[in-house]
Design goal:
By secondary structure, the chain is an alpha/beta fold. The chain is built from 11 helices and 9 strands. The chain is about 40% helix and about 15% strand. It is elongated.
């Protein structure tokens, strides 16, 4: 199956290019690392396209999902149905993390991703389904990256360029190497690829969801957050219980707070958390 894109230089087969990217940087055959690719799997459509491409490529890989404890039940069941999936469970749940951090996760304080979603893959060659079409911020990403402990030290390379390939091979073996094989795919490309390969994808897409992720994600719009908690009231109750313990912890630690109960935190968090002004207000409280 080919996804053809017409450019000034002619036409490009996106599927072939993605598979070539995967094969070209196979960590085992190239001697980069002793372990196979670490393919990060979220249960979304892009992750499905990624895992199928890896299967088509024939290279060795580990398909890994980092369980966040706040994935939708439909997503959890779908992930468990995927062949070869390895599910990594966190040492701490979202609810425990909120109490430990003494504040809710927001766009400016998104500690949940680091501890729950993006853990794992250290010292491995990680492959993700990140695409430029997902957001303006992701337009700055490349199909090949080397991430060190300091974010500013990230090295952005282009896996389709021979000179950059030499740069990559000469790099020291610290940090996390990241390959994004479908970085230049559109939404239409992904859906067409999944259709051809008879992939039903996460059932939440059939319910009208455009993206799937953590319930209560601070990056989601307030309207989406409200809709999610209406659909999953048990998650709402769990957040309120966590916020209740968080408030108690703040009082016990002598930290300033305007909140008196978990419900008040939840109401603030779900209706105002997306605005920069509220995030600034929150920072002034800590």
């Amino acid at each position: 199956m080919a996804l053809i894109e017409y450019t000034l230089d002619g036409k490009q087969d996106k599927v072939k290019i993605a598979i070539d990217r995967i094969k070209s940087f196979d960590p085992i055959s190239n001697g980069f690392l002793p372990d196979p690719y670490y393919v990060a799997y979220s249960g979304g459509k892009d992750s499905d396209a990624l895992r199928i491409l890896f299967e088509l490529s024939g290279v060795r890989y580990d398909l890994v999902h980092n369980h966040t404890t706040v994935d939708a039940p439909e997503t959890v069941r779908y992930i468990r149905s995927i062949p070869k999936i390895k599910i990594s469970y966190p040492e701490i749940s979202m609810w425990e993390l909120i109490v430990k951090k003494r504040l809710p996760p927001t766009r400016m304080t998104r500690y949940c991703c680091e501890h729950l979603k993006e853990r794992g893959g250290i010292g491995r060659f990680v492959a993700t389904g990140i695409r430029w079409a997902e957001s303006s911020k992701r337009r700055t990403r490349s199909n090949l990256e080397i991430v060190t402990k300091k974010a500013k030290d990230k090295i952005i390379l282009n896996a389709d360029n021979d000179e950059h390939r030499r740069q990559f091979e000469a790099c020291v073996k610290q940090g996390k190497r990241v390959l994004n094989p479908i970085i230049d795919w559109t939404d239409a490309d992904v859906w067409e690829f999944l259709r051809v390969h008879d992939c039903n994808s996460n059932p939440l897409y059939a319910c009208g969801y455009r993206r799937v992720g953590c319930i209560g994600c601070p990056m989601a719009s307030s309207s989406r957050t409200q809709a999610e908690f209406a659909r999953y009231p048990k998650y709402k109750a769990a957040y309120i219980r966590a916020f209740e313990k968080m408030v108690a912890g703040r009082y016990a630690d002598g930290l300033p707070t305007e909140w008196t109960e978990g419900q008040a935190v939840f109401d603030w968090w779900t209706t105002e958390k997306q605005t920069a002004a509220i995030d600034d207000m929150q920072l002034s409280m800590f």
